[in-house]
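Entry 12.
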Amino acid sequence: MSGDWKLAEDALKRVQIIGNNMNDLVSITSCSEQLRCIGIGTDAAVFQYDQTPAYAFKVYSSEALDKKEIEESVYLRIKESTFFPQYYGKGDNYIVLSLEKGITLYDCLIQGIPIPKQAIEEVEVAREFVRLQGLNPRDIHLKNILLQDDGHAKVIDVSEYAKEGNDNRWEHLLWAYDHIYPMIEGVSIPSWVLDTIKQWYKRMDQANFALEEFSQQAIRIFLGNRKS
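Predicted 3D structure (tokens):
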């Protein structure tokens, strides 16, 4: 399996990704029929090649090629950890990772799938490992943590680990898991509720952020939805 990902090289050359302003998702302007898009972000799109299904190909827009180099360097530094995808190689505008199966914690909430404590604890272990490598485990949120079939966690986006500063996203989620999640475990939460809470959170003044007050607002919108 070591080098068979190179079978996808010709197909990947036909992919064109364009970045968008205002931190919007990238646009795919051309692609090979042999590739299937399995994820889109603000810097890149992720593809699976039909002949090498064990790999994920993260293709960057021309505007984000500097981030490709940074993310590659991060994966090389954390390669000994099992909590992240494995790095296999790169092309001019892409990197090659192991394709990780599982459901995001975001989708767990939507589908009412219980999130085990073990998965949360493993994210904490993963973050500590990243720190020991001299990196900064930030931008960890519900959509970039997978709950795999065996109940273990996998963190799938390391693009901001070379940045400084703590965005507190994981700390806030950890608090919510301990204080709020026991009340909603196993309950299906509509995506619009989660997206509304996400937009509130993004608009909050982090310098004066009151976590308990914010959580009470989130609970009210959830309970209001349950009654309607």
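Annotation: Helices lie at 9-12, 65-77, 105-111, 117-132, 169-179, 181-184, 191-203, 211-227. The chain has a mean pLDDT of 90.
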